[in-house]
Write a structure and sequence with these properties.
Its main location: cytoplasm. This is Coproporphyrin III ferrochelatase. Belongs to the ferrochelatase family. By secondary structure, the chain is an alpha/beta fold. It is built from 13 helices and ten strands. The chain has a four-stranded parallel β-sheet with strand order 4-3-5-6, sandwiched between helices. Strands 8-7-9-10 form a four-stranded parallel β-sheet, with helices on both faces. Strands 1-2 form a two-stranded antiparallel sheet. The longest helix has 20 residues. The protein binds coproporphyrin III (HT9) and fe (ii) ion.
Length: 432
Amino acid sequence: MSETIETTPSGGCCGGGCCGMQQQPEQQAQAAQSRRETKAPAATGVHLETGAAVPSATPAAQAGPEHVEEAVAYDGILLSGFGGPEGQDDVLPFLRNVTRGRGIPDERLEEVATHYRHFQGVSPINQQNRDLKAALESALAVAGIDLPVYWGNRNWAPYLDEALQQADAAGATRLLAIPTSAYSSYSSCRQYREDWADALEATGLQATMQIDKVRQFFNHPGFLAPFVDGVRSTVDEARAAGFADAEIEVLFATHSIPTADAERSGAPDLHEWGPGGGYEAQHLAAAEHVMAEAAPGIGWQLVYQSRSGPPSQPWLEPDINDAIDALEARRAVVIVPLGFVSDHMEVMWDLDEEAIETATEAGLWARRAPTPGTDAQYVGALVDLVQERLEGRPVAERKAVTSIPAWYDVCRPGCCENPRLGFRPAIAGLQP
Ligand SMILES: CC1=C(CCC(=O)O)c2cc3nc(cc4[nH]c(cc5[nH]c(cc1n2)c(C)c5CCC(=O)O)c(CCC(=O)O)c4C)C(CCC(=O)O)=C3C
Ligand SMILES: [Fe+2]
């Protein structure tokens, strides 16, 4: 860990306020106590700036109300995507769906629409999810799990409502949902849970259908394995192109979110995350693991992309383009789309067009590593997440890497809420 930390300009556990450094003693004591009582996951290791040992919680998670350790006989899997347009006519209606209730001005939508227009209005995300569904179906069959996979999206057809209607028509009453999103935040966790609740209401299935969700899987080894492979081979490509290790920088890119959302991400009642909340901590832990496996000793940072919202509103930083411009001694950058499970517009535009252009203009060699997509290791991780819930596998035996143990099956109260958008009921939480 320390080797990675030394080479990490903005990476590491917190960049300032993490680990209780900015908390009042009373808050620290309370947080420490809740850690003891609940044996909650917490970062372990050495504080970046002070070098002091970070108080380590239990190395493996222990079951609490947020964990389900009993076997459940599910009737099907609800694969849940973001959704994306598949033609020019879909673009604006899709963008209005995504931003409904948020007051995002039309000029901003028009601006985002140009990214889609550039690709004939087609995002690859729906085809990625069709392929993922097919791969998941075969992998489940190979594992001897006889469950149908229903696929529905939050923001474009096929919608979650349709998937629930199909499941209901087949007689299903209990589904295990898989979001195509690995981390904790409003956009990547709570909003899925709210949209599942909405879909139950819209279809009138509230009383007859139960939806649970798999844990956030940012630290499942099968999810991270394609990133390990991608970093290893892209760093090798840079070396083959003649760059010394000290000239290579790995940039782990994820979606920026408002800092106000970040603070509420990832069970904030149980953890002393830094100002970037559980969202940032999970990404840092995942990136540290990937680097330790794939390219120990090479410099890396966590960077953010695709910021929107008014300039007055703080979002997580640094932006990937600013980070590229700030690179001094580096001549080659490896961009890793760590925050995303498949290719989609934010990968094709914000990374492959914009970030690569920024790097090229700065005279840097730049390549992007692949997203997991339908990599067999990632699909295997999804099968394992289903299997652990079917069998009620004890939390301590679940597969998890990084300094954070296996995440919760049931979200903590207040987890990933978004006060700007107001309260909406959600499934799979200790509070609705
Ligand atoms: C954390 C996160 C993920 C990763 C987790 C996950 O995968 O769920 C993600 C994924 C995606 N985001 C996507 C698209 C969009 N996201 C938007 C807006 C926003 N995303 C946010 C966050 C995230 N987004 C936030 C905080 C906003 C601002 C809204 C606000 O005001 O709070 C907008 C509106 C326009 C704009 O604001 O740019 C669009 C069109 C697509 C589909 C791309 C395609 O079609 O190929 C995907 C996979
Ligand atoms: Fe987004």
